Amino acid sequence: MKETVHFYYTNDLHSYFDHWSQVATFIKNKQHESKEKNESSWTIDIGDHLDRVHPITEATMGKANVKLMNNLGYDFVTIGNNEGITLSHQNLFHLYDDAQFDVICSNLRCTISENPHWLQTSKIVSSNHGIKIGIIGLTARFNPYYHLLGWDVQPPYEVIAKELKKLEKETNIIVLLSHLGINEDQAIATKFPQIDCIIGGHTHHLLRTGEMVNETIITAAGKHCSFVGEVLLTWDHEKQQLIDKQAYTTKITHLPKDLTTEQRLMELKEEADLILSKKIIHTDERMKVNWFKETPIMKKFTEKLRVWTDADCAMLNAGLLLDDFQPGNITYKDVHRICPHPINPCVVVLNGDELLEVVRASLSKQLMELELKGFGFRGEMIGRMVFANLEVQTDFHPNGLEFVKAVLFNGEPLDSDKKYKVATADTFTFGRLLPEIAKSEVKQLFLPELIRELLVQTLLEYEQD
What is the pLDDT of residues 110-138, one digit of tens each? Predict the structure, then answer.
């Protein structure tokens, strides 16, 4: 007898709920098909389901995301970095208290208490006809953040070896839920041929028909759930072996919306609006925002960052603020809409030459007009850098391009031999946006505070002024 089992999965939704009702239509139809055929199926999420960019997630600290997955009958999830490092310790510890699914993250550990009751390192499930399937889950290792929040993420390969040793003798099939990214998935498939299927995410890669690495099938469905994935594994009971592995991703944005899910999203939005409607201040004047000019609110915001972090100087890009603050009551909803980024404050240590290069690079036309996606940034473009406790003198070339003439700290030119504590957004500690910041040997992250919490404090002081 041959038996086919199905895994329906989502990954990297990032609280982009625009297509969630179509996701519901697809998943409900697939779940119904499997039931009608008497074939076993499980519904899975591979992490980064939540993102505090969305007011529903912000207002409920991700609890609404869990409710939505409960509503669709999810069976297993693993966690992504957005679940892991954008919530406070307590918010993550209790995120899945009401989950009606299993949370499997094999390499996550709590360092300040016992693990939460919902956290499992692996799971064995059985199909209708007795196939034993082992499930492992892994999340990306951002330990500089996790350690500050009371968690530790262990090395993936060590954890895989440990879990395989436990599962191999008890299961017929092994599936890895991987929020590690495509390169890691390929390397794991090469190193651990015992894993039959890797369902991936994190790097937002889309594999329309899966990819075979040795005997392992790898799959992933992009981001924002424009696609939903399906894995089909066929087991031959007579031969006692897996004889077929298939993976597909299906574009679902054209599907009709599931009305029950649509109604639930509307209810959650109303609840979020109510939670975030609390007044911060009242203002009679519009606070203007300009991505390419220094504005009073952005200047005060940057100075607040400097003082709060006890840094020598600070720098923030004007693109962090997406819109003006209008006259009237300014609420937490306004702050979230205008500064939606899950970005943390950070202090790096730079010498004078490095800081000078950072200032020069940050005021380049190329960086200011960069349309950034990722690294916590949820805006349109970087915008002009605004500085606190640094005097930046600029001029223009004949071709109109701006250049930095001098940078002064306490009225004096930057000292090549001096070390400066520079406060900024942790966005710039990643990648190649500002290399001197990214390669700084001293980085002090501030968690769980997001940068917009300092914006709230800035507004409160703005009112007092």
Answer: 999 999 999 999 999 999 999 999 999 99
SS3 state at 247: strand
Cα(368)–Cα(386) distance, rounded to whole angstroms?
Answer: 11
| 56-82 per-position pLDDT tens digit | 999 999 999 999 999 999 999 999 999
DSSP 116: P
Query: What's the order of all strands across the beta sheet hosting 119-120?
Result: 119-120, 102-104, 76-77, 41-45, 2-10, 227-236, 241-251
Q: What pLDDT does residue 374 have?
A: 86
User: Cα dihedral sign for 47, 51, 55, 58?
Assistant: positive
Sheet containing strand 412-413, edge to edge, reads 391-396, 402-409, 412-413
For the four alpha carbons of 234, 202, 227 and 342, in that order, the dihedral sign comes to: positive
User: If we measure between CA atoms, which residue out of 380, 368, 301 comes closest to residue 340?
Assistant: 380
Q: What is the DSSP string of 284-327?
A: SS-B---TTS--HHHHHHHHHHHHHHT-SEEEEEGGG--SPBPS
Three-class secondary structure assignment of 432-463: CCCHHHHCCCCEEECCCCCHHHHHHHHHHHHH
How many whole angstroms separate alpha carbon 216 and alpha carbon 196?
A: 5
What is the pTM for the complete model shown?
0.94
pLDDT computed for residue 462 by the predictor: 76
